Amino acid sequence: MAAGCRCHCRRHRPHHGAAGTEAHAVNRLVLLDRDGVLNQDRDDYVKSPDELVMIEGAAEAVARLNQAGHIVALVTNQSAVGRGIIDAVMLERIHQRLRDNLARVGARLDDIFVCPEAPWQASERRKPGPGMLREALARFRAEAALTPLIGDTLGDLQAAAAAGCQRLLVRTGKGAATQAAGLPQELLPISVHESLAPAVAAVLGEEH
User: What is the mean pLDDT of residues 109-128?
Assistant: First the structure.
C-alpha cells in the first residue's frame, strides 16, 4: 500500500466536539469495535455505505455515552482495504454513513482509528495487537485501567488486555461464538452483555 494511502487510513476525520476535548474528561474514554458492535458483521465485508446496517439500539447507546460526558472512539480492523476489496476512499464513505446514522439520534464518535492492513501484513496496530488502543489512550490522555473496550471477538479482548484496558464482550456479531468457544483465563475478567446497549449501561453503572 502506498504511504499516502496508509496515512489516510490511520484515522478518519476526527470529531473534536467542544473546545478543550483533549484536556476534558480524563479517563472517561470508551473504545468500540465497529463490525458486530455498531453495525451488522458480514462475512464478505462491508464494501459500500449501503451495506452498513446498524445493530438495533447501537446508535442510541453511543448517544448515551456522549450525553454522560464520555469520549467515544472507534478502533477497527478493516482488512478489506489491505486485501484490495475496497480502497481508502470507499472506507471513508462507509464511515461517513456511520457518522450520519449516529447523528440522527444525536450521537457521535470523537475519533476513528483504523488498521487497514491485511492479516498477513505485520502490524502492531492490527488487533489483537494493542497499537490502535494505545494511540487512542495517548490521543485523549486516558488511563488504560479505567478505559473499557467493547468488542465481539477474541482479538478485541486480546488487544484490550495487551493495552491494559477493561474488557467487555457483546454477543452480537461474532460475540456469541466467541463466548461459546471459551474465554481464555488470562483475559479475565470479561464482562459479557447481549448487545451494546446493556454494555453501555454497565459502563455507566446502571446495571441492576
Answer: 95
Long-range CB contact pairs, 146-149, < 8 A, 24+: 146/27, 147/27, 147/29, 147/30, 147/31, 148/30, 148/31, 148/203, 149/31, 149/32, 149/33, 149/75
* Among 30, 17, 62, residue whose Cα is nearest residue 143: 30
**Whether residue 175 has pLDDT greater than 50:** yes
Which residues are designated catalytic? Answer: 33, 35
Residue 168 pairs in a beta bridge with 150, 191
Cα end-to-end distance, the chain, whole Å: 48
167 vs 192: CA distance, rounded Å = 9
Please enumerate in sequence order all residues whose Cβ is within 8 A of that of 122, keeping only pairs 6 or more positions apart, or say none.
Answer: none
- Each residue's pLDDT tens digit, 14-30: 333 333 444 444 559 99
> 26-203 has which CATH code?
3.40.50.1000
CA dist., res. 25 & res. 161, Å (int): 23
Q: Is 140 in contact with 71 (CB distance < 8 Å)?
A: yes
Task: Compute CA distances 132 → 10, 93, 114, whole Å.
Answer: 9, 21, 7
DSSP H/E element including 160? helix 154-163
- Grid cell locating 41: 458483521
Cα separation of 74 and 38, whole Å? 10
pTM confidence score: 0.87
Mean pLDDT of the chain: 90
